[in-house]
Amino acid sequence: MHKASKAIMPAANSTEKCTIRTMKRIQRVKPFKPQPYWPYEWNTRPLTEADFDSYCAYSKIIVREIPLDNLPGCYLVCGKQPVIFLDDKLRGYERMFVRMHELGHHLMHPPGERFKRGRKEATEVEADAFAACALIPRPLLTRRRPDKIIEEYGYPASLIELRREILSRWAI
Ligand SMILES: [Zn+2]
User: What is the pTM of this model?
Assistant: First the structure.
């Protein structure tokens, strides 16, 4: 029964659930300021896995793709070594979204930041927003119709909606 209903109506993937949750929370979070040391062309053109790989190599971030059961990815600092773990089951746009989400944590959130008062939720919103801008840069969002973006890149409508919210609330 469970399998059959799943086949008829595919459940929203975890990235989609995250973007929907972030949409609701973004109004409570202050906009971040993009920094010059962020990946070149972030929010200018859609970043690729090659961009992610070369930025991580340049920044000496260890990236490990392994089976993760309960989360799509995570970022941590062991000693002084930044490490990004990624679930090896990620496919399609989710691969890039999760990569950029974790990179966003690396760029914006020093170790311990999420444990500061009121910052746990905000750090997740910021990392999602960073990822949304990496996948849908501002020129793409403003120059192309949403249905064309969906068609070309295979993004869910919820990601486009979140990206529009970032533009209208944060002017990024
Ligand atoms: Zn996160």
Answer: 0.92
